[in-house]
Amino acid sequence: MQLSDFNFELPDHLIARYPLQSRTSSRLLHLHADGKYQDHCFTDILELFNPGDLMILNDTKVMKARLKGKRATGGAVEVLVERMQDQFIAHCHIKASNSPKAGAELFIGADEVKVTVQGRHENLFIVEFSQPILAVLDRYGQLPIPPYFNREAEAIDTERYQTVFHDPNKLASVAAPTASLHFDQQLLVELEQKGIQKSFVTLHVGAGTFLPVRTDNIENHIMHSEWCDVPQHTVDLIRETQARGNKVIAVGTTATRALESAAQAHGGKIGAWTGDTQIFIYPGYEFCVVDRLITNFHLPESTLLMLVSALSNQENILNAYRHAVKQQYRFFSYGDAMLIDRA
């Protein structure tokens, strides 16, 4: 399949650069298995889900991973922590006028934190911090909001670019699992009262989620690597849900990738699994676990658009997206949502 097969026209004014006042006030476009679609409010999931269904959510927490600094010569640099190897060494993206070499020293804050470049690993820099990384991020870091916001992180992002159910001990993502941003505590309580279960996986979202596909033939694309964990408790609930004929509902593409990675590691059947995943889901993929998906509207020609096209199909998704544009739905991380039934 060609990259151009996943293109669509998106007016710039439909990009949601700020969240709505209420998490649950977004709109929801329900795409049925047969390709028909209906417009809803997000809280209509209370009627669209059935007692006994199981929602799987990603409980990762977003780090304040973006650091502004300078070189020893005074030139400005930006360091984005992608993954911590230990409390002092991390794999990072570095934005500078010239790519720093091994041995280069960068400085954060009032020169009190030194960051030494040790080398490269694929497209990332391996760097050593002179102080514990999490403490540096807490003091100097900014939330790494998506590049298409075209703005710096603001006070509102501190709360709204995190899920209400994140695990504070899982502080390792550089992007939010944005489908989950539509949930507040009240909605979660109401879902539970209706008999809709929830459980968690963890996938630490990397900056690679924003990287464009650079190959015309999408099968030649190499996915970025992300760490994920699918615990036994979640596996047990999934098996019980499947056994009684209810639906497994993934909340977000990150939860989807975690679940399907765990299934692939066990020959197509869900099992507990922890590790790095580079799973690339595009049309033709046979889903092993996910029956329904809550997700936001994604960028043209993105791997996330390819994933949702695999769950439904390319024609259904692009038809639904054209409807969403016509109806002025809000796109991307702070935008509106879709509920997609597996075709």
Automatic annotation (TrEMBL):
GO cellular component: cytoplasm
Pfam families named among the record's database cross-references: Queuosine_synth
Any one Gene Ontology BP term: tRNA queuosine(34) biosynthetic process
Known pathway: tRNA modification; tRNA-queuosine biosynthesis
GO molecular function, one term: S-adenosylmethionine:tRNA ribosyltransferase-isomerase activity
Enzyme nomenclature, EC number: 2.4.99.17
Protein keywords: Cytoplasm, Isomerase, Queuosine biosynthesis, S-adenosyl-L-methionine, Transferase
Compartments in which it is found: Cytoplasm
Catalytic activity: 7-aminomethyl-7-carbaguanosine(34) in tRNA + S-adenosyl-L-methionine = epoxyqueuosine(34) in tRNA + adenine + L-methionine + 2 H(+)
Family: Belongs to the QueA family.
NCBIfam families with a match to the protein in the record: PRK00147.1, queA
Subunit structure, as described in the record: Monomer.
PANTHER family according to UniProt: S-ADENOSYLMETHIONINE:TRNA RIBOSYLTRANSFERASE-ISOMERASE
Function recorded in the entry: Transfers and isomerizes the ribose moiety from AdoMet to the 7-aminomethyl group of 7-deazaguanine (preQ1-tRNA) to give epoxyqueuosine (oQ-tRNA).
Protein name as catalogued: S-adenosylmethionine:tRNA ribosyltransferase-isomerase
Lineage, highest ranks first: Bacteria, Pseudomonadati, Pseudomonadota, Gammaproteobacteria, Moraxellales
Gene behind this protein: queA
